[in-house]
Amino acid sequence: MRYSLIIPVYNRPNEVDELLQSLLDQRFKDFEVIVVEDGSSVPCTAVIEKYARLLPVRYFTKPNSGPGQTRNYGAERSNGEYLIVLDSDCILPPGYLEAVEEELNREPADAFGGPDRAHESFSDVQKAINYAMTSFFTTGGIRGGKKKMDKFYPRSFNMGIKADVYRALGGFSKMRFGEDIDFSIRIFKGGYRCRLFPGAWVWHKRRTDLKKFFKQVHNSGIARINLYKKYPESLKLVHMLPAVFTVGVMLVLLASLACPWSLLLLAAFALIILLDATVQNKSLKIGIISVAAAFIQLTGYGTGFLRAWWKRCVLGKDEFSAFEKNFYK
């Protein structure tokens, strides 16, 4: 078996249906699918039964323990030479596995990852969120962009690794958020060969509304400090920029009380996002929503980062006691 596709799922049967449908269309066929239900109250049993005769899919259920441990559960039951971890809200183009195979044949790799895109069927909000998460102006291009401010770290929505390397590293840690970056850091620290496969991209639905998106990126900001506490060298300038932006926004808003012209700084940034997102998506409406998504992405991450810095670096709390309500309910 060449590839084992590991898919953790929590209350998302409709997404699993779309993902499995996309796997039917893969041109490269040497793979198995392992779906692991992480204590869901809305299981995808009926969806799995629908594809049982069409795909080499195996289905497991377990008590809730978070995505990292659920991936480990699936990996322990896999047969593939390579493990590919996917989020349940992803859809694969027909040439995804073919692109992975071509890259591995061209140059060996112990681990790899690919970028993500917005499908034409996604809502305008989902397309705007995708822009906010992939634009150089918001995330520095570190999620697989051509221009980037830091090296590429594979993330769990689209991550591959040799099975023996996975087991040598002990799989994902018990972190409830940021566990994929933790794993990527350990891949690099272990001296393994890790590359970006630009052609192995996925359509990634992400959150469906801006409120959920804020919570997601806020938790990502918290996770960055938790990662810093484990690996101080992992914190780079690009990771601190959203916090700087957040403080800058607050200062500009305060300054505007005395000098309204200071708001032009925020207006200039909004205009850059509006124009870039409009051109990329060929839609003024998506461009407008992207402005809101960009501010949410930066300030959500920034406030999470600052909050975690205060609790963990200033007050000295540990990860569990500092964020029990966020990650460990």
SSE layout:
Blueprint: E1 3-9, H1 13-24, E2 31-38, H2 45-51, E3 57-62, H3 67-76, E4 82-86, E5 90-91, H4 96-106, E6 111-113, E7 116-117, H5 124-134, H6 136-139, E8 158-162, H7 163-169, H8 179-189, E9 194-196, E10 202-204, H9 210-230, H10 237-256, H11 264-281, H12 284-314, H13 319-322, H14 324-327
Parallel strand pairs: 1-2, 1-4, 2-3, 6-9, 7-10
Antiparallel strand pairs: 4-8, 5-10, 6-8
Helix pairs in contact: 1-2, 5-12, 9-12, 10-12, 11-12
| Sheet of most strands | 7 strands, mixed
Bin the strand percentage.
5-15%
Helix and strand run: EHEHEHEEHEEHHEHHEEHHHHHH
Shape, per Cα inertia axes = globular
List low-confidence stretches: none
Q: What does this molecule look like?
A:
There is one protein chain. The protein folds into two domains: 3-208, Spore Coat Polysaccharide Biosynthesis Protein SpsA, Chain A (Alpha-Beta Complex); 212-327, no CATH class. Helix content is 52%, strand content 13%. It is built from 14 helices and ten strands. The two termini are 38 Å apart. The model has no long low-confidence stretch (mean pLDDT 92). The chain crosses the membrane at residues 261-279, 286-310. Pfam families: Glycos_transf_2.
